[in-house]
Automatic annotation (TrEMBL):
Lineage, highest ranks first: Bacteria, Bacillati, Actinomycetota, Actinomycetes, Micromonosporales
PANTHER family: 3-OXO-5-ALPHA-STEROID 4-DEHYDROGENASE, 3-OXO-5-ALPHA-STEROID 4-DEHYDROGENASE (DUF1295)
UniProt-listed Gene3D superfamilies: 1.20.120.1630
Protein name: Steroid 5-alpha reductase C-terminal domain-containing protein
Cross-referenced Pfam families: DUF1295
Length: 315
């Protein structure tokens, strides 16, 4: 995280200067308040738009609209406080809320598959949100990627349009695509718990573990003063340049396997994990690699030795 910057005189700059001295508890209080307003707005959508009034799959369609409205509210908070990182925890918070809501929509006993899916999703959500909270410094700081995007688009596109479409709306749509597989895994009955469920659980749990270990190793490495300027090459980072991204992608493939186990006719929800692969392969990984190349000349050689995501060696 680095201090947010923007073209001189913009609202974002005025807010970043004004909020630079606020402490972390104040920042978390603001984020909590924004998300509570978003939750109320989403609940209003659910109450006002019964599934029968919308095209598509009833509650699934209502969830989509509620998700979009909540995203717009969080976007409003990001603009109000001049910090797009207010949206960051939405990636992990929204799926947890949606999954629990879908369980409530069922209205009956939850079977083994549903319990496992929701349990794993909640573990993923809590850990990822906690990881964000551990690294976010408050309202005076913003993810460096957003700062970079703001600087690159300044004078060419209005910032509100850039941050809404690229930083808020696009991730919401990608995550909802991933959640399409969670819907049948939670709501469709008829197929008993079987070997594919076990395999899905192993894939999902392993992915959560990989992401958690990678984040922990990265945090431990960067906190060591002697590692300043060095390329992280310990633990899982010896085999993949972005093992945390690999774990995130694996999690969504695990969710899709649960969908396949519950209802093979929902195979098309593979669009979710495929969207994740595309997002990380063509957006997240290149952004991180370009930044590392600019800051560490030796990173070019590192890229030649270590694959971006899938390991090709184990020694």
């Amino acid at each position: 995280m680095i201090m947010a910057t923007a073209p001189k005189g913009t609202y974002a700059v005025r807010m970043s200067v004004r909020l630079a001295g606020t402490d972390r508890p104040t920042g978390f209080a603001v984020v909590t308040a924004v998300y509570l307003v978003a939750a109320v707005a989403a609940a209003a959508v659910v109450g006002a738009l019964p599934g029968s009034a919308l095209p598509g799959s009833g509650p699934l369609a209502v969830t989509f609209w509620a998700d979009l409205v909540a995203t717009v509210v969080v976007f409003g908070g990001s603009m109000l406080f001049g910090n797009s990182s207010i949206y960051d925890p939405y990636w992990s918070v929204a799926p947890a809320v949606i999954a629990v809501a879908w369980v409530g929509w069922r209205g009956d006993a939850v079977a083994a598959r549903q319990s496992l899916v929701v349990g794993l999703l909640l573990i993923w959500a809590v850990r990822l949100t906690a990881n964000w909270a551990a690294s976010w410094r408050g309202l005076g700081h913003e993810d460096w990627r957003y700062v970079q995007i703001r600087e690159q688009t300044a004078g060419r596109l209005p910032w509100w349009l850039v941050t809404f479409t690229g930083i808020h709306l696009m991730p919401t749509l990608v995550v909802f695509a991933g959640l399409l597989a969670v819907w049948p895994a939670i709501t469709v009955d008829g197929r008993s718990f079987g070997p594919l469920d076990v395999f899905a659980a192993l894939v999902t749990a392993t992915a959560i573990g990989v992401e958690a270990v990678a984040d922990w190793q990265l945090r431990r490495f960067t906190r060591e003063p002697g590692n300043r300027g060095r390329i992280v090459d310990i633990g899982l980072w010896r085999f993949s340049r972005h093992p945390n991204y690999l774990g995130e992608i694996g999690f969504w493939w695990g969710m899709w396997l649960f969908a396949l186990a519950a209802a093979p006719s929902w195979w098309w929800t593979v669009v979710g994990p495929v969207a994740m692969v595309l997002l990380f392969t063509f957006v997240s990984v290149p952004l991180m690699d370009r930044r590392s190349l600019a800051r560490r000349p030796a990173y070019a050689e590192h890229m030649q030795r270590i694959p971006a995501l899938l390991p090709t060696r184990w020694k």
